[in-house]
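Troubleshooting: if your tokenizer reports a length mismatch, compare against these two reference records.
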Amino acid sequence: MMRFGMFNSVNGDRRYKAEDFAQYFATFIGNGIFVRPSDCLQILANGDSMSVIVRPGKAWINGYYLINDEDYTLSLDKGDTTLNRIDRIVIRLDYTERKMSVQVKRGTLSASPVAPILKRDADAYELALADVYVAKGSLNISQAIITDTRLNNNLCGLMHAVVNQVDTTTIFNQYQAWFDHYSNLKADEFNAWTEDQKTSFLLWRDLEEIAFQTWSADQRAAFDTWFETIRNILDTNAAGNLQLQIDQHKEDPLPHKFVDAGVEYKYGWRVEGGNLKFIYEEVE
């Protein structure tokens, strides 16, 4: 349904209800208490009694407002004889009763109590100002057992700006959808590039392995050929040279040499007349 407003009425053709104005205000005034003064609608203990004081202040709920001009007193039930409870002080917008008020929501008795759940439906809407822990046997309320909930946005909150919150859900979802699409696209491209690089690397590695194996085989074959050639040379020449040296030594009458004062001599031993004789001569 499309609606509009507000326009002057001509012969009663433009009539508006209170909820029309509330809906209008709710578009730019968020739920919560006013930020000033700092004790706006604060809940205080009221001396030695089972009552609390609601300090002056203002609040808005769904386009409807509440103004408290002076200290307002609320009474609580005394403590149970055996179990504890938590009472919650709330601002209540009652659509059925067509009013706003500050009330006490009595908690459920328990050894480990919890605060009552706020009502937020088509019949009423509530904001929590404070929770009061009422221990078993309590006959009075002290400030120490009062938990201020005014700054908890889930329970109450401060009306700190003309617009309570800008709804960016739609544009965020658009950006998120674009980001997801872009991320998936780039992820696919990166995966494809990675596979290409992997394939290229494996091909290069295989080619390098083949080339290395071929080179290694060639080098080994060349070394084996060289080694066989050297071994044959050593086997033939070394033996021949050694035998030649042995023969020369046996045939040489003076096979040994020594140097004395820069002069080289050849010497040997010879048997003459049945005696071993040392002989030497200068090498020219």
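Reference record two:
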Amino acid sequence: MARLAFTKMHGIGNDYVYVDCFEHSVIDPSSLARRISPRRTAIGSDGLILIHPSSAADCRMEMYNADGSRGEMCGNGIRCVGKFVYDHGRVRKERLSVETDAGIKQLELHLEHGKVASVTVDMGEPILEGARIPVASSGRAVNVPLSVEAPEGTRTFDVTCVSMGNPHCVVFLPEVDGLDLEKLGPRFERHPFFPKRVNTEFIQVLQPDLLRMRVWERGSGETAACGTG
């Protein structure tokens, strides 16, 4: 069994295990993500992120969910990648680019006392075309009815689907704290309407400028936050 150096980081509670692959490679990262992610029997995380050199950008991010599936993009994860490569001396630039499976993203680092205190990432324009999200609809899936087998029986939810590098389904509800996401989340994630599964945000409007969000991420379950979400 080989020893592997890692760094544990989080962005507003969305936490991953990060591995520097500039000089070393990871064999079977999908299996490794499954091994390290359980919170009671392993390191505990929402998944695994590998940081590689890139010929197209300043570095490349390779992301795996807790179940070992590959993710195209991770908003909180890419901000932590920016901090990692700067603080570890891999890329000493306050404006840098990161290659992802959803394209190259631009980051701006904000420094305090020579360390990265916060990171802004430009994730590009939201994708609303159904075929590109993807969903099983050629047009925009905005405020469309979706029948889901909920714990209390079949319910029809009005959903809006969008991609910020990976697919999301947004549901506005009168109240979200009482939702049984352990049962409801997987039924959205694996609904036939979403050919590549989906991340789902359940939203409650508390005030005109304040939302309450609970998120079920494909491959990881309910998480504390979600950058693309």
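Descriptive notes for reference record two:
- The first strand starts at residue 7 and ends at 11.
- Helices lie at 29-36, 75-87, 181-189.
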